[in-house]
Amino acid sequence: MKALSRTLERAAVILGVVALAGILALVAGQVGARVFLGRPLPWPEELGRLLFIYLVFIGAVEASVTRGHIAVDLVDTFGLPPRADRILDLGRDLAMLIVLGVITYGAWKMIPVVNTMRLPATGLRMSLMVVPIFAGSALMFVATILGAVAHLRGERRAITSSTGETIEMVE
């Protein structure tokens, strides 16, 4: 389980770097075309938007694996006993699984609907904008299950504070 979580996190980080580099290259190319050629290219904006959608969901997967998402920790400050804390964490995971299940199912149903549509500048299929929603939410679903299983086994999962400080670490 730990190896799968680490692999998922590393893959998300690498893909995120590639997507960000692609966005940077597209923006630089678009600026260069405007400045040096005097005319903007029609397709970098569409590809940049597509890569940004991928980057958002890749980052969301990485945040799910490391528990780096923003969380309301008001209840955590009450100093609950370990059993109540475990139940609270499992309740959060269950709520996440329900939400992610709905998003994954909705994206899956939407892919064939928008697959016939094309992006105007590139001619790419519109479904390429829905695929990262499906894949990202499905991978977050898997990451949430892995985290819940680790928690049930008594392993503490990493929780990152808003300052980036690790509060708990996986054993």
Automatic annotation (TrEMBL):
GO biological process, one term: C4-dicarboxylate transport
Residue runs in coiled coils: none
Molecular function terms, GO-annotated: transmembrane transporter activity
One Pfam family this sequence matches: DctQ
Regions that span the bilayer: 12-31, 51-70, 90-108, 128-152
Functional description taken from the UniProt entry: Part of the tripartite ATP-independent periplasmic (TRAP) transport system.
Subunit structure: The complex comprises the extracytoplasmic solute receptor protein and the two transmembrane proteins.
Cellular-component GO terms for this entry: plasma membrane
Provenance organism: Palleronia aestuarii
Record localization: Cell inner membrane
Membrane topology: Multi-pass membrane protein
Domain of life of the organism encoding this protein: Bacteria
The protein, known as: TRAP transporter small permease protein
Keywords of the record: Cell inner membrane, Cell membrane, Membrane, Transmembrane, Transmembrane helix, Transport
Residue span, Tripartite ATP-independent periplasmic transporters DctQ component domain: 24-152
Lineage of origin: Bacteria, Pseudomonadati, Pseudomonadota, Alphaproteobacteria, Rhodobacterales
Protein family according to the UniProt entry: Belongs to the TRAP transporter small permease family.
